[in-house]
Design goal:
alpha/beta; Rossmann fold; seven-stranded mixed β-sheet; 9 helices; globular
């Protein structure tokens, strides 16, 4: 039994078995993608966009619904790829870094890796950063979602999967990005963006709670925590 068996079990446990299930998953996450990811994508929807470890293709489906024309994906699970190809994207079965190494330089307007980084050994992540920067267009973005190493609650995500290896703080990720040729980074908590219903009430409450918690942490530990959410979104700009 390997990690691919674990992923297969997880996908089946979530009930992702048909194209309709993929569409449902895409709709469930669309509000987060719309609030965070869309502003980081190329304005020109004809620019190629690739997803690293695309899984069953729900994010690729969201991209397609937002008008993006040239969609590429890669994943190592044949079962997941079977679903992702039904979305209408060009999807390859391969290791992410091997696939990146075959892509032409200066090709993609954006590359997206959702819940990928935490599965990679450190050296493999360095290789990904180098290869991603090479294959992005000038001004293109590598967009990542990962457990937030800065958050006191990071363990909720980092240790919720036996295949998780490591994660990063914004400061560390910024340093690594610059080492591998990226010009700047941006970070955003997922917390408030993930709130879907009764936002008029829940978002202000979440913001107030976060401010109070940051203040308490500052006074008790002298640490300044900017990003509290267990999940962090990062944009690395070439």
């Amino acid at each position: 039994m390997s990690h691919l068996d674990y992923y297969k079990f997880q996908a089946e446990a979530r009930g992702v078995r048909t194209l309709g299930d993929v569409h449902r998953c895409s709709e469930e996450k669309a509000h987060v993608y719309d609030r965070i990811v869309r502003a980081w994508l190329p304005v020109d929807v004809k620019r190629p966009v690739g997803e690293l470890a695309c899984g069953h293709g729900s994010f690729l489906h969201w991209l397609k619904l937002r008008g993006y024309k040239e969609l590429r994906g890669v994943d190592s699970s044949s079962e997941q790829i079977h679903l992702a190809r039904q979305v209408g994207a060009s999807v390859d079965e391969d290791d992410v870094n091997t696939w990146l190494g075959r892509q032409p330089g200066g090709h993609f307007g954006a590359l997206v890796g959702i819940d990928l980084v935490e599965h990679l050994p450190k050296d493999a992540f360095m290789e990904l950063l180098r290869a991603a920067c090479k294959t992005l267009l000038p001004g293109g973005s590598l967009i990542l979602r990962l457990p937030n190493g800065e958050s006191p609650f990071v363990g909720m995500n980092l240790f919720n999967d036996i295949t998780h290896v490591w994660t990063y703080t914004p400061n560390c990720l910024d340093s690594l990005a610059r080492m591998h040729g990226f010009s700047r980074t941006e970070f955003q908590d997922e917390g408030a963006a993930a709130i879907r219903d009764s936002r008029w009430l829940k978002v202000p409450l979440a913001n107030i709670s976060s401010a109070v918690l940051r203040t308490l942490v500052r006074f008790s530990t002298r640490e300044r925590i900017q990003h509290l959410s267990p999940n962090l979104w990062a944009r690395l700009v070439k």
